[in-house]
Write a structure and sequence with these properties.
This protein has about 475 residues and is an alpha/beta fold. It contains 16 helices and 13 strands. The two termini are about 20 Å apart. Bound molecules: glutamine. Glutamine binds next to strand 6.
């Protein structure tokens, strides 16, 4: 079966009628079922809906209409982003049969441009995790090595792009959930500036940290999808009034020496040391060396405040999660355990105990504790202050360099089950990614080549607010210039 071409070529072919959207989508569905058998990357695969949507695109082409920038492009959507017509479970038993009456703005905008949703992808429950093992639908396996995790929480979307099922997939990123699985699966993953993309229709985890992000195999595809999703949305008051065009793709891929010539890269030493595996450090240093050789100024840029980021992130994220998950009380929607006569407290307790998995329960307990009257000042209040200190330190650093560089994750994808009993070790591995969420900055994970055991590493670049364009230019230059 031919591998998926990139989104731009596919859409161009569909628009001229040289290939039908139906054929493109049919092939993607076949690949999705094949991947499902190996990787468990999907929660729903929507054969009928996708083929109907493809037919509508073909009819429009036949009638001489304009089917859109992403005409007939197969898209996979993380299952915590609401898609009408499909279940939106967030990987949780509590939402196992949940069908949203409305659609996420990000999805609606991509569908309006002709993209065809072929299914929703598997994830850590509510986005809580780094391996996509904490799903009520079973773990996702890495298509590069099915004994390994795909990363998380958007592991299914990363796997779908890595396996060539779709050229584009959506994820959500609260503390690294797009970038880290992108690194583990060897694809590109972008988390936009907070407010760039509407959060309407996203099943909330940590509302001050969550953003919809994009996976792709090339930076132009990612830029195209981002430009379509971006822009203010009356349904999300935190969406920003920024022109979507400022993130749009360049007509041709960026050239490495052109991009590098005016680029100042700050390597954060605290993120290159302890805990980073030799193979990952080597791959990241080699990629930075390519930038240096092409003319970039690559220098050390100490930001010691990053040492406090993980602790801060896990206080803020769990506090917000405990508040967001309070709605799954067995009354309004979601699964319910118990009868009307049992009393609300008993129904809530049993619905939550059976509906939420271990990791989600751990987060709710931790979050409720840090917000409780006796602990608020020592934990949540202090975390809010440290969050500001970390954000200001990053802003200062980014006034001296254009981008901050570090390994996306300190290791390559680990073996399934390897860290299930050690959540703290997994939390600590978010050190580089959670920075961008705490500060609301855009960041990208660019494939950095093989690191160890034949598995890839990712180079993370954090940019100034609203400078996704620069990150994608660097990503474009690095990926197009790489050996095939
Ligand atoms: N691994 C982080 C967490 O568990 C980030 C997850 C995410 O970005 N959704 O919170």
């Amino acid at each position: 079966m031919p591998l998926m071409r990139n989104a731009r070529q596919t859409a161009a072919d569909v628009r001229t009628g040289s290939v039908s959207a139906r054929a493109v989508v049919q092939a993607a569905l076949e690949r999705a079922h094949a991947l499902q058998a190996r990787s468990n990357a999907f929660i729903s695969i929507d054969d009928a809906g996708a083929l109907a949507a493809a037919r509508a695109v073909d009819e429009l082409v036949g009638a001489g209409g304009y089917p859109g920038v992403l005409a007939g492009v197969p898209l996979a959507v993380k299952d915590n982003i609401c898609v009408t017509g499909l279940r939106s479970t967030a990987g949780s038993n509590v939402l196992r049969e949940h069908r949203s009456p409305f659609e996420a703005t990000a999805v609606e905008r991509l569908r309006a441009a002709g993209a065809v949703v072929i299914g929703t992808t598997n994830l850590d429950e509510f986005g809580m995790g780094s391996s996509s093992e904490h799903s009520a639908f079973g773990p996702v396996r890495n298509p590069l090595d099915t004994r390994r995790v795909a990363g998380g929480s958007s592991g299914g979307s990363a796997a779908a792009v890595a396996a060539g099922v779709v050229p584009l997939a959506l994820g959500t990123d609260t503390g690294g959930s797009v970038r880290q699985p992108a690194a583990f699966c060897g694809v590109l993953g972008l988390k936009p500036t907070y407010g760039r993309v509407s959060r309407y229709g996203l099943i909330a985890y940590g509302s001050s940290l969550d953003q919809v992000g994009v996976f792709g195999r090339d930076a132009e595809d990612v830029a195209k999808a981002l430009a379509l999703m971006a822009g203010a949305d009356p349904l999300d008051a935190t969406s920003a009034q920024r022109p979507p065009a400022e993130v749009g793709p360049r007509p041709v891929p960026a050239e490495l020496d052109v991009v590098a010539r005016s680029l100042r890269v700050g390597v954060v030493p605290h993120l290159m040391g302890d805990g980073v595996s030799t193979g990952v450090r080597g791959a990241v240093e080699a990629t930075l060396e390519r930038l240096r050789e092409a003319g970039a100024q690559v220098e050390l840029c100490p930001v010691p405040e990053v040492a406090h980021a993980v602790a801060t992130y896990y206080v803020v994220a769990t506090a917000e999660a405990s508040s967001n998950l309070a709605r799954y009380d067995g009354s309004l929607y979601g699964s319910r355990v118990g009868d009307d006569g049992d009393g609300q407290e008993s129904v809530s307790r049993r619905s939550r105990a059976q509906g939420l998995g271990r990791e989600a329960q751990r987060r709710v307990l931790l979050g409720s504790y840090v917000l409780s009257a006796g602990a608020y000042d020592a934990y949540f209040g202090r975390a809010a202050r440290v969050r500001r200190i970390v954000s200001e330190a990053l802003a200062r650093a980014l006034s001296e360099v254009d981008v901050l560089a570090a390994p996306t994750a300190p290791t390559v994808a680990w073996r399934l089950g390897e860290h299930l009993d050690d959540p703290l070790a997994v939390y600590l591995a978010d050190v580089a990614t959670c920075l961008a969420n705490l500060a609301g900055l855009p960041a990208v994970s660019v494939p950095a080549g093989a690191a160890e055991d034949g598995l890839p590493a990712g180079l993370q670049l954090i940019g100034r607010a609203w400078e996704e364009r620069r990150l994608l230019d660097v990503a474009s230059a690095l990926t197009h210039d790489a050996a095939p």
